[in-house]
Amino acid sequence: MSNAAAEIPTAGTTEARTVAAAGPRDLSAYKEEQIAGGDLAAAAYLLLWAIIGAYLWRTARRQAVAESALRALEGRLDAEFARAAAQAGRGDAAAAERAP
Amino acid sequence: MNATPAPDDPRRAALAPDGSMATRDGLAQRWALTARLTLVLLRRDLVILARSRDTLGLVLMFAALCVLLFAFGFLREGAAAAEIAPGALWVTLLFSTTLATLRLFAADEEAGALHHCLHSAAGASPLFFAKALMQGLFGALITALLLPLVWLFFSAPAVALPQVLAALGLGLIGQALLGTLVAALMVHVRLRELLLPLLLYPLTTPLLIAGVKVTAISLGGGDLAQTTPWLGLMVVFDAVLLLLSPWLFARAT
Amino acid sequence: MTLPNPPSPRPVAAPLGLSLAIVVAIGLVEAALAHIAFATPPDIALGVVQKIFYFHVASAFAMLLFLVLGAGLSAIDLVAPSDRADAGARGALEVGALFGAILLVTGPLWARKSWGTWWTFEPRLTLSLLVELLALAVLMLRGLSSDAQLGRRAGAAMAVMAAPISLLIHLAVKLWGGNHPSVLQGGGVQSAAMRISFWLAVAGVLTLASALLALRYQQLRLDQRHRELELTFAAWQLRRTRTAGESS
Fold first, then answer.
1. Is residue C1, in this structure, part of any structural domain at all?
2. How would you write C166-229 as a 3-class SS string?
3. Mind listing the pLDDT tens digit for each residue in B171-197?
4. How many domains does chain B fold into?
């Protein structure tokens, strides 16, 4: 930006020179305000594991839901099977009474 | 171009008498049938459009409003900034064609006709091409309104019109093909008004970037030879869409 | 008249390979982390922040690989529908999107130091963001569909469509202009220790991604088996009621 301002020969040439001279000073101030690299690296690795952890947690919850649904189905199957067996038993008994 | 129906598919019998798709006659017959059905469906959609012009009117009003908002949103020294004119044109076009895309299958769906059109004797292709043509027509009408509006509001400088029109044409073809596919895939989706732009806009970015670039070069009086690679990119994009989207449409609906 | 036996819910056994993959993945990731933290010198020009690079680039590899795998399996599922291809495609897209999220989070942190800005409209950056948004939208499409079969096919079609268009997005954004360092041509790696760290990280992340995919695949297969069993059970109940009605 400052370079572009310096190249354009406008009415206020002195102003343009001032801007160009201020350039490097601006840059150093900009570098000082930068965040320490170690903090950025630590943040990156923390976030990385947070994302993977969140995915694992969600997968684990889905697994728990699937397993409880399967257990519920198993329970219903057992109950149904028992009732069917009982009915089949009654049917056999009725057939035996009618047989003689 | 279309998916080959399975051997037990009743559609197959209607396509080629001997059941083989490889014969020249079968293929020609198949194309003729597809073209005829496309025209039938297109005529039906045009009749619907002519009877109730509400959708078209609302979309056009939205497009005009959108350009106005861009002009207000990017004021510079009391006037609309001319350098955002290409972006305003293309983004408005993208937004307002999306409204038409969202309503593309609405009439068929509400009348329960969608299932029958999708599983007609010639497969899903006629419906796809008819809807893509409708979407392209919508886009052309919107563009016809937008171009003068943008020129008026942004007091745009001299334009190399052929380049801009070529870019708009290619952009509308791509949007029509992609929009028709995405709209068809969204028919059974909840919150589709929200999800459709999320799928459509990332996929249209090549068209948007290229279109904005071509328009900017043409508006700024730049070297018109620079528009060639961008127009080429749009042609390749449209060709890929033309190959893929009818196939995916037939497979996935 | 004998009644058909009710279907028995055979449990889907967690395969030994899955546990093994998880153990190997954890081991490799630990090794990579230890090597990056203790054995690799900080970058001469960039300093400690350069250590983000290893997992950042490895995540990019994982994202690319698994999204392409997801698109390929989606294409297979569209051409020859199979529950396995469906589960694989969905799992691969999820894992690809997961590492895409990691890529997009670690990228700006590194760019802040090395480029002096959090975000710049640079080709690969823009492409990763767009592809990540697309992958998330495709996954949401499956979830929001009211018809499971149609949602599955629509998601597969979008995944297939996104693959070639991503190439064009890349081309378009590249024509637009950019300055991303080219890693594999020797842009980022200076010493042998760094190379070891880099390849350890790549191996670790790819094994971890594969283990996560295997985990999710197995779970999706379990869901499919559960749905199948529910259907068989409902059909069996219907038949039983009908037989009971006939006999009485």
1. no
2. HHHHHHHHHHHCCCCCCHHHHHCCCCHHHHHHHHHHHHHHHHHHHHHHHHHHHHHHHHHHHHHH
3. 999 999 999 999 999 988 889 899 999
4. 1
- The dihedral built from the CA positions of residue C182, C188, C191 and C195, taken in this order, carries a sign that is negative
Taking an 8 Å cut-off on Cβ atoms, the answer to whether C116 and A40 are in contact is no
Do A16 and A46 belong to one domain? no
Same domain, A30 and A46: no
Q: Residue B193 and residue C111: Cα distance in Å, rounded?
A: 35
Q: Which residues of C touch A66 (CB under 8 A)?
A: 219, 222-223, 226
At B130-180, the pLDDT tens digits run 999 999 999 999 999 999 898 888 877 667 788 899 999 999 999 999 999
Radius of gyration for chain C, computed over Cα atoms and rounded to the nearest angstrom: 23
Residue B194 region by backbone torsions, left for phi larger than 0, else alpha for psi between -120 and 50, else beta: alpha
Tell whether B4 is covered by a domain.
Answer: no
Q: Is residue B157 part of a domain?
A: yes
Interface of C with A (CB under 8 A): 2-3, 5-9, 11, 33, 46-52, 55-56, 59, 94, 98, 101-102, 105-106, 109-110, 112-113, 116, 208, 212, 215-216, 219, 222-223, 226, 229-230, 233, 237, 240, 244, 247
Q: Does B240 touch chain C (CB under 8 A)?
A: yes
Residue B28 maps to a domain: yes
Residue indicated by tokens 């497979």: B251
- Is residue B19 domain-resident? yes
ipTM above 0.90, yes or no: no
C110·A62 Cβ contact <8 A = no
User: How many domains does the structure of chain C reveal?
Assistant: 1
How far apart CA C197 and CA C209 sit, in angstroms, is 18
Tens digits of residue pLDDT in C192-227 = 778 888 888 889 899 999 999 998 998 899 888 888
Q: Do chains A and B touch (3 or more CB pairs under 8 A)?
A: no
Q: Looking at the complex, does the CB of residue B51 fall below 8 Å from at least one CB of chain C?
A: no
Domain range spanning residue B198? Answer: 11-252
The answer to whether chain B touches chain C by having 3 or more C-beta pairs less than 8 angstroms apart is: yes
**Measured between CB atoms, which of B195, B237, B245 is closest to C137?**
B195
Query: How confident is the model over B29-75, as pLDDT tens digits?
Result: 888 888 888 898 899 888 888 887 888 899 999 999 999 998 888 87
What is the domain range of residue A26? 1-34
